[in-house]
Amino acid sequence: MKKIILFSVIIISCLYTTTYAQTREIDANELATSLMPHMTKPIVIDFWATWCGPCRQYSPTFHSVARLQSRQADFYKVDIDNNRDLVGIFEINAVPTTIVIYSKTGEHLKAEGILTAEELKTLIQQAQGLLDLNDSF
User: Fold this and answer.
1) Which of 54, 57, 92, 109 could join 87 via S-S bond, C-beta 3.0 to 4.6 A?
2) Among all residues, which ones are annotated catalytic?
3) Are 8 and 63 in contact (CB under 8 A)?
4) What is d(CA 20, CA 77) in angstroms, rounded to the nearest whole number?
5) Neighbours of 115 (CB within 10 A)
6) The CA-based dihedral angle spanning residues 28, 99, 60, 118, taken in that order and rounded to the nearest 10 degrees
7) Strands, E assignment, the chain
8) Is the CB of residue 50 less than 8 Å from the CB of residue 102?
C-alpha cells in the first residue's frame, strides 16, 4: 500500500512539474546566456505584471498552450516590474505582450494584448517557419 501511495505522489509531482515547468520566470541574463545560445525550438515569452488584469485573464490560455505545445516551443514568463532590461530590449509598451524568439540573435515575433489559444499557436507556427539555429552571437 505504501508503494502505491508513494508511486501516486511521484506521478502527481511529475505531472505538476511538467505542467508548470514550461512557464517559469526568467531574466535577461538567463535568456542571453543559457536559453538563446542553446535553443532548439522557438522561445515563447509572456511579458506580464502582477497588477495587470488582462495579464491575469491571459495567463490560463498561455499556460494551456504551453502544456499542449511544449514539444514545439519553450515557454517562459517575464514580470515587467522585475526585468526592466528585457522590457527595453524587446520594446515592450503594453502588457500582456507575447514574443516568440526564433533566432539565436534574438529575432522575434511580437503580439500585444490577450491572445486566444489559436492566435498563440499560429504565432508559434510562424516562428517555427522562420527558425534559424545557425545564428551565432
Assistant:
1) 92
2) 52, 55
3) no
4) 11
5) 20
6) -160
7) 24-25, 43-48, 74-79, 97-101, 108-112
8) no
